[in-house]
Inverse folding.
């Protein structure tokens, strides 16, 4: 089976000034994750590697690029899931951890639990030898500017990024490896100017992340409360189970969610046979995927660029 990896770098009203950095970032993320698959690595390792790169890139709302809560702090969510046995792990309201996606994987592999939160998640990280960063070291200059803009002029928190510069969703990856196994991973800093302690869809299995080798794998991005209410990731996988293609399932589910709840989102999907599904009802979503020597990417509606690499 030919492996494939898809990543997204967040859905929202991404300004023109940030388009180039988003495209560069998702293409590099795919390159890193696909290298794992090319070398015989697992889908799980590939999605973790791809997301870790975006957590280090200030261009994305995850890890170092995370937006800030009302107190000016970074609080992050992440989740990861494997399709072979439906094992999953997640963390929420985590502080001062460089790679929340790797901590979510530790929850999956080293605890009997699905989700660890706040101080408990940070305590677990310390017990696992994860280095604690200096408080405030994940606060980027652009995130500080975005929070100040929000505090001075407000913003519509029901539509990611409309009035809050830099507030552009989430990062995620889905992969199918050469053994036919699926995995999905998602990581976020949440919504600019959120209340302290707010959790997002990203930490909810079935909303932000889902993977089932019998049907498909999904990572979502966009307005978290809406995605969570609609159980978007699981809804897309169920549509595949009912006979839809990955693209049909992704597109139809997002249109239904937006029509019902009047907020936007995006998703990347892989079916069990490696067919991609990519769609968003937001203004933009940065995405890229690689299969073999072909790289596809885009950010605007109906955009699909192809490179041979």
């Amino acid at each position: 089976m030919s492996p494939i990896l898809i990543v997204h770098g967040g859905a929202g009203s991404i300004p023109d000034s940030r388009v180039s950095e988003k495209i560069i970032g998702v293409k590099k993320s795919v390159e890193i994750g696909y290298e794992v698959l090319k070398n015989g690595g697992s889908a799980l390792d590939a999605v973790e590697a791809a997301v870790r790169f975006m957590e280090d890139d200030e261009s994305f709302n995850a890890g170092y690029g995370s937006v800030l809560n009302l107190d000016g702090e970074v609080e992050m969510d992440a989740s990861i899931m494997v399709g072979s046995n439906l094992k999953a792990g997640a963390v929420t309201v985590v502080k001062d951890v460089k790679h929340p996606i790797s901590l979510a994987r530790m929850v999956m592999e080293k605890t009997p639990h699905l989700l660890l939160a706040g101080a408990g998640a940070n305590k677990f990280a310390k017990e696992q030898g994860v280095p604690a960063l200096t408080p405030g070291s994940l606060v980027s200059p652009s995130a500080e500017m975005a929070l100040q803009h929000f505090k001075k002029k407000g913003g519509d928190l029901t539509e990611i990024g409309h009035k809050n510069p830099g507030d552009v969703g989430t990062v995620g990856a889905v992969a199918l490896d050469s053994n036919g196994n699926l995995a999905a991973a998602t990581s976020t800093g949440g919504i600019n100017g959120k209340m302290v302690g707010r959790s997002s869809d990203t930490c909810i299995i079935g909303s932000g992340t889902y993977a089932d080798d019998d049907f498909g794998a999904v990572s979502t991005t966009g307005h978290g409360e809406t995605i969570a209410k609609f159980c978007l990731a699981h809804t897309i996988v169920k549509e595949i189970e009912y006979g839809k293609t990955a693209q049909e399932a992704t597109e139809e589910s997002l249109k239904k969610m937006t029509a019902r709840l009047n907020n936007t989102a995006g998703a990347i999907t892989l079916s069990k046979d490696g067919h991609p599904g990519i769609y968003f009802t937001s203004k933009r979503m940065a995405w890229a995927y690689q299969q073999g020597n072909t790289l596809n990417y885009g950010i605007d509606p109906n955009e699909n660029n192809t490179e041979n690499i």
